[in-house]
Amino acid sequence: MKITRFAYIPSGTDLSALYRERVGDYPKFFKMDLSSKLGFLLTEMLVGGDPDRFEPRDDRAVLMFSRWGCLSNDRRYEETVREFPSPALFVYTLPNVVTGEIAIRNKYRGETSAYVLDGPDFREMAALVGQAFSDRATRSAVCGWLDAHDEADFAGYAVLVESDENDDKLVIMKELIEEIKTKVIAALNLEGMQPEDIADDAPLFGDEGLGLDSIDVLELIVLLEKEYGIRLANPAEGKKVFGSVAMIAGYVAENRKK
Amino acid sequence: MRKVTVISEGVLTPLGAGVQENLQAVLEGKSSLRLHEGTFGAAEPFYASLFGDRTTLPGYSFFETIAIRAAERALASAGIDPASDRVRFVLSTIKGNVERLADGEEADVPLCVPAGKIAAYFGNRNPAVVVSNACISGLAALLQGRRMLLQGGCDYVVVIGAECQSRFIVSGFQSLKALSSKACKPFDAEREGLNLGEAAAAVVLGLDAPGWELVDGAIRNDANHISGPSRTGEGSYQALKYVLAAARREDLAFVNVHGTATMYNDEMESIALSRAGLSEVPVNALKGTFGHTMGAAGVLETILSMHAADAGIVLPTRGFSTLGVSCPVRVSAQATKTSGREFIKLLSGFGGVNGALLLRHEEGGAR
After folding, report:
1. How much is the pTM?
2. Between B88 and A227, where is the model more confident?
3. Is A74 touching B (CB cutoff 8 A)?
């Protein structure tokens, strides 16, 4: 993962002016609470220039962190409670509504989450963002710290985090290896064996490994064709492919048809 | 890959303390939902499930008290030291101590404050993380716990979901015209809205222990509206699709849905379930028993679903009698038998969020 873009809104910024400069044609902005305005504008600063930005995407998460949540709006809503509770203010009393506003504006249909922490603990935020990338669909994330104490005292920053191609390959490979272990166990009827019992690099044949034989090779050939659309015409080729689960995964990744 | 499993649970609701008491109450069709007039100084009467005894621990708010009580119950049988630096606390709530705003006690309101106090009560010094994802918070917190454990930074995660009601929340839902004037009727043709509820529920999660496994989970946004669900159930469907990739469908006992009994939510869920090919799988909802317990719902409903599945039961959906959604779904009005060893917990909420979590217990009722 790497941070590819950064945006910052310092305290004292005229948010309406920033909106007019950056956006201008999204009047819903004025209905938003302070926290949503901050998150919304920070995201505009990060991705506003992207040519394909309004194409719906499922691979981008929105992860927002704060200490105050939407406290400034909670105060405003609380003032209305005794007389005429305001539904328009109430819907912004949820700390995650900012993530929804960003998702709606940008058509991000991936994960959206709001976290409340004691303060901008970078180590903790980095860990939580990293963990969010364990979702198999997530390839990038808009992540922000929204410090929305009140209309006179606020600030925020956001980053675009993108997964490295190498991270991706590693994760995909790890998942494929797990998947193949499960399928090998099922195909060869290795009853009672668990995926974790097979080491990634352990030889599958011979005395040191799983002790598979030539009939098992034929089963594995069927498995490759059935599950991944790979035809191994010559069983002798199997020897090269079926050395270990990691080797099978490598071969599948290169040659799979489905 | 390592497995994240539920080691122990704790539950506290107006129907009682303890998992078995609450499970029994659901099976007997009990509910703590009743009409409240003047409670919290609300202008109009409202139906809700509220705690009667509002005693607090000295120095703690009522919200903090119920969260601590639920966590204590979970920790009592976990056999772990909650003060260890290898233990993390994750709190799920939407509004926490918000009632304090009315008294001008603003310092207690940021959600990190109760989270810190609760973790400190157990001697834990790690940063307490609050997941506040509207009505899917509890599910999101369980998923967060799973991710923390798989990343390897800790050995146990205590996930607490809690919510107490207040004039702030009740007046808000009244202003949105989202409340039912009687006990709510999830998925029913005559449903007219939700009931609010109070509860606290906690689990201790660990690695590779026997018991219920959090197999996988997903959060997806509708990217459609901040307070209305998608008409196509898009986010809920996408979350379901994600977890179904890891499911063994023949082993799926039921889907425990959100089922708030609002017109839009239940209709949307029926569409999502149908799109995901789950029209034949039993579906149940617990809001007719406990009301909508907000930040507690994901944890509470997951715990009760685990124990029901262990007992071979699909829990009844109190309040439901006639299907009132456009897509066919098999809502369990009565308790039915199941031999399935998996279930899906489904939730949706404001901000357009939807979540699905897949749980599996390999040994069936062997706990």
Report:
1. 0.87
2. B88
3. yes
Q: Which of residues 4-63 of A touch B (CB under 8 A)?
A: 56, 58, 62
First to last CA, chain A: 28
Picking from A119, A139, A163, the residue at the C-terminal end of a domain is: A163
- pLDDT value at B365 more than 50: no
Looking only at the bridges linking them, the beta strands covering A60-66 and A112-116 are parallel
Residue-wise pLDDT tens digits, B119-167:
999 999 999 999 999 999 999 999 999 999 999 889 999 999 999 999 9
Same-domain check for residues A27 and A121: yes
Contact residues, chain B, for A141 at CB < 8 Å: none
- Give residues with Cβ within 8 angstroms of B318, minimum separation 6: B26, B29, B31, B183, B286, B288, B289
What confidence score (pLDDT) does residue B302 get?
98
The domain that contains A125 carries what CATH number? 3.40.47.10
Say whether pLDDT at A210 is over 90: no
Asked whether B261 and B184 are in contact (CB, 8 A), the reply is yes
pLDDT digits (tens, 9 = 90+) for A151-201: 999 999 999 999 987 776 777 788 888 889 988 888 888 888 888 888 888
Statement to judge: residues A101 and A180 lie in one domain? no
Considering the domain architecture, whether residues A154 and A172 belong to the same structural domain is answered as: no
| DSSP-based three-state secondary structure for B116 | helix
Judged by CB atoms closer than 8 Å, whether chains meet at A115 and B130 is answered as yes
Same-domain pairing of A22 and A40? yes
Last residue of a domain, one of A128, A163, A198: A163
- Chain B positions in Cβ-Cβ contact with residue A196 (cut-off 8 Å): 1-2
A66 in the same domain as A14: yes
Contacts of B224 in chain A (CB under 8 A): 104
- Dihedral of the CA atoms B239, B245, B249, B253 (nearest 10)? -40
CB B350, CB B292: distance < 8 Å: no
Which of B112, B130, B353 is opposite residue A112, by nearest beta carbon? B353
What domain range is A20 assigned to? 2-163
CB A226 within 8 A of CB A218: no
Q: Which of A112, A121, A124, A145 to mutate to test the interface with B (most CBs of B within 10 A)?
A: A112
